[in-house]
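Z., the sequence and structure:
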Amino acid sequence: MERTKTRWLLAGVLCLALLPPTTYAQDTKWEKSTAAGTKAYQQGDYVEAEKQFKTAISEAGKFGEQDQRLAASLNNLAELYRTQGNYAQAEPLYKRSLAIYEKALGPEHPDVAMSLENYTRLLRKMDRDAEAGKMEARAQAIRAKHAQETSLRTVVVPLEEQAAFQEAVNQPGADTMIALAEKFLQDYPESQLRSLVYSALATTYREKNDYDKVVENGEKSIALDPDNVTSLAIVAHTLPQKLQGSGLEMAQKLSRAERYARHGLERVDVLPQPANVLPEEFEKTKATFKSMLHSALGFVYLQRGISAKSQEEYEIAVSLTISPDPIDYFRLGEAYSDERKYAEAIEAFEKAAGLAPGTVIDQLATEQAQKLKTVRDVMQGTGN
């Protein structure tokens, strides 16, 4: 798809897996255990995370068998077990968590959708695709219902303002587009279209590889419209690319990227289809969003050193599009390599090279594949 068309599609479309303790009242012992477990999980210390999450379940049980804090704690331990591949231990926890949410909140609450989505990921891992498909469909129906009730709105914009907006976002030249978009923001400082304009600017600066401007404009867009999927995807994908500053600053950037990516994934399936976009084209656009958002999560986990989770997210990212990003395959190779899955890593690096012939990615991926082949051969005792 050509660049201007992509920009318009992205600009024109108007749950955390681990539940944080701040979702509920600050009940000291439960809250501390949940926070400590989450921190240990993010750092890859699964033994400590399991200990803290079990303590949180014990504490949450004191609030009653149908308390949402218990459901959240069960979900967190299930997520940990799923990450570790302990599927048999994870499933009864997901079931119990889902049952509590359904009874406490009703069968069509957004938190029920979140619980269904987490359970779906486990079923996919267990190759129970039929069950996963039914559960996923139910979650999407809940998301769509709430989107229709709370998110659909009509924006009435004067014709002159509409014309200025269309002229800016449909410009084929990046520099001209930026100039016209900046002029639009000056001429219409209270426009309801500002979030879309900032989103289009972020998209254009991404094409120019201007990291700071991508984040600046993307976050201005999100501040005006927290559900702008384009901006959520672009900023989530960009933030982990350039980690500078103190350890705290880097951790904060990764947390922001993760928050944007997860919220983007919540919103993408309930986007209303624009009248001027064909259904198949709209589905491809949504798949592009999802791929970007899962890629962003993959890099967040890679930067945190949680290679198993990174691998999982990158596998989803490359599966969602017929034109996967070679960098996604390269980083998937890095995640596999960290897990000592050398055969899978070699295959991922070779795919990265094949998708980007004659580029730096081609060169680096080929080098990495060759190094791993040497490691593999040595480990097999051939020395070749």
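The two ends are 44 Å apart (CA to CA). DSSP finds 18 helices and no strands in the chain.

Let me know what you think.
H.
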